[in-house]
Amino acid sequence: MTARTVYFNGRYVSEQEARVSIFDSALMFGDMVFDMTRTYRQQPFRLRHHLERIYAGLRYFEIDCRMTIDEMEEATLQTLALNLDALEGAEAQIMHNVSRGPLGVYKSVFDGNLQPTVTINCWPYWWHLAPYGQMYRNGVHAVIPGQHSVPAHLIDPKVKNRSRVYYQMANMQAQKVDPKAWALLTDDQGLVTEGTGFNFFLVYKCRIITPPGRNILVGVSRGAAMELLEKLGMPVVEQEFGHYEIINADEAFFTATSFAIMPVTKVNGRAVGDGKPGPVTKKLIEAWSTMVGVDIVAQADEYAKRVAEMEQPAAMAAR
Predict the structure, then answer these.
(1) Strands of the chain, DSSP E
(2) Are 1 and 14 in contact (CB under 8 A)?
(3) Is 171 in contact with 183 (CB distance < 8 Å)?
(4) Going by C-beta distance under 8 Å and a sequence separation of 6 or more, which residues neighbour residue 189?
(5) Is this prediction's pTM over 0.90?
(6) Is residue 149 domain-shared with residue 220, that is, in the same domain?
(7) What pLDDT sits at residue 2?
(8) Rounded distance, CA 318 to CA 316, Å?
(9) Domain tally for the chain?
(10) Residue 109 structural domain
(11) Do residues 148 and 287 both lie within one domain?
(12) 290 & 203 share domain
């Protein structure tokens, strides 16, 4: 298998060589902006949108990564090109991580030469996409945990940053209810905000609604879905809502870069609508597949077969 290559502070190195210092601000404070882009047919989807969000976050955190957005885009495309053989035909997860670098108090370790930490890596999407086929068909169970989302007056969630322990807490709490549950966060007033890395939509009283961008990550896929729904003659309204609206909704779905559109057929153990992916969600999945030139459900099924084939020799060897 061809080794994968990582962009690391101006150099292209192996994954094993790409190591962030224990004195980095990212480790000390979670002080890192990141973003994840994916490919369709091995071409990045809305890469510039993701890069613009990175640079907006860098301005918010006052991090100078010493690269222009055009230089970052060029380095991203080069990293992907260097990894195409290693992907073995798979789609890629393209991950950007940017921190302000090691803290000044530790500068002697680096001969006084401190610099921001910038990494770009590509990971084959086999394992990410493999479980999604059945989920697209059956939907997922969303559970509202006790852990709330972090409000914008503390740290603005529009900045995609690595200080996300509250996401982890929410996931753990939700999965104690159902090991396969996806956490759905609310604010301190019980109003829905977002999932732990994905946005949420309802079809409610013949309208499609989604939480406003006040206390959420304004997702790239969220925006793409809203554009598609507008073209389908089903515009989205940004509106605050809570559990009452979910219980009385006809459909629900999540959006995110990794899976695009995911039906939500149950929330807190109760069926949404008839408990099956609804017509709006299905139309949106079809429209998304047309937009990117890939049947996203069929691709997930294909990846599940490939993962099973890859894991079979290991399972046989373990006997």
Answers:
(1) 5-8, 11-14, 32-40, 43-44, 92-99, 117-124, 140-143, 182-186, 192-195, 199-204, 207-210, 236-238, 251-256, 260-267, 270-271
(2) no
(3) yes
(4) none
(5) yes
(6) yes
(7) 80
(8) 5
(9) 2
(10) 5-124
(11) yes
(12) yes
